[in-house]
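Hi R.,

Here's the chain you asked about this morning:
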Amino acid sequence: MWEFPLFPDSASTFAPKVDALYIGLMIVSAAFTFAFCFFVLFFAVKYRRGSKADRSNIRDSSPLAEAIYITVPTLIGIGLFMWGAIIYFELVSPPGDSIEIYVTGKQWMWKAQHPEGSSEINELHIPAGKPVRLIMTSEDVIHSYYIPDFRAKQDVLPGRYTSMWFHPTKVGRFRLFCTEYCGTEHSRMGGWVTVMEPAAYEAWLEGSSETTGLAAEGEALFRQYHCSGCHGANSTVKAPPLEGVFGGPVPLLNDPKDPQSGSKIIVADERYVRDSILRPMEEVVAGYEPLMPSFAGQIPEDDLLKLVSYIKSIGRGRQTRTLTDRGMSEGEGAASNITDFMGGTSANGGTN
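And the predicted structure, written out as C-alpha cells:
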C-alpha cells in the first residue's frame, strides 16, 4: 500500500488491508502521543517554578469536555477493534474453492505436499489469482509460517493442525520465514514462495516426477495400516463409516466412557480425523463402542496427511453406507448426518 519504502512488497489481497489497519493504528497512536506530550510540556512550562500561574486549586468542571474526552477515545477504540475484527474474520475464513496444500514444519525445514502428489522442501509453488489454504502441522516444536509480502503468518504446532490462507496477486518469488524461535539453527529455517501464472503452475504440476495424488497414496495407506478392515467399503465390522463424513456433523458422546452421557455435535474437519486416528478414546462416536486402538507413534506425519487427504476425498458428496452394509441392525450405530441425529428420516433407512 502506498509503496512505503520500509514496507514489504504487497503481493496478496490481505496486504493493503493489513497495511491500512497498521497505518490507522499508527496515526491514532501518534495523535494521542503528541497530544499527551503537548499537555505535559504545556503544564510543565505553565506551572514552572517562579511563574505567575494561578495555583489556587480552582475546582471547576465542564460536563461537555468530560463527555468529549471520554466518548471520542472510546469510539475510536471501538472503531479500530471492529476494523481489525473484520480483517481477522476474513483471514480465518478461507473460500470453499481454495487450493489446499499440506505443510509440515521440522527442525529446520518446511515440507509442502500438493494434492496432486508433488512435494517440495523450503519452496512453495502456487498460482496467482487463486486462493490457497495451507493446512500445517509440526513434527517437533512450535514453528511459525510467515510470508511478509502476503502479510500472512500462522503458528505451526506439534500434534495438531492449524491453517492459513491467502490470495496471491503478484507473480514472483517471495521470502518465507519461521518467526518462532525453534532451536539453534532457527535462522536457517526459511525458503521461497513462488507465485506463477496459472498455466505455468499447471505445467509445473504436470512436470513433477510424483504423479500419484495425495488421496491415492492415502488410500493405499488406508489398506496398509488395516484401516479398511473396519472402515472399508466391504467391512461388516460395527465401526463408524467414513464415506460422506468429512465436512459434516458427527455426534460424539459427552463422556467417551459413558454411553448414556448424551451426545454433542462437532464438524468433521482435519483436526477431528487426525485425533480419531491418534487419540480415538477421547472422542467416541455416539452409538459405537470405543474399540479402536491408538496409532500414536506408529504413523509418520507425512502418512497422516495422506490418510486425512484420502478421508476428505471420500467425504464430500458421498453417501454413507447403509446399516445393513455395515453389519448392523436397525437402531445400532450413530446417525450419519444432522437430520438423522435430530430424529428426521435416516439415509440408513430409519431413525436414530
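The CA atoms of residues 51 and 134 lie 65 Å apart.

Let me know if you need anything else.
M.
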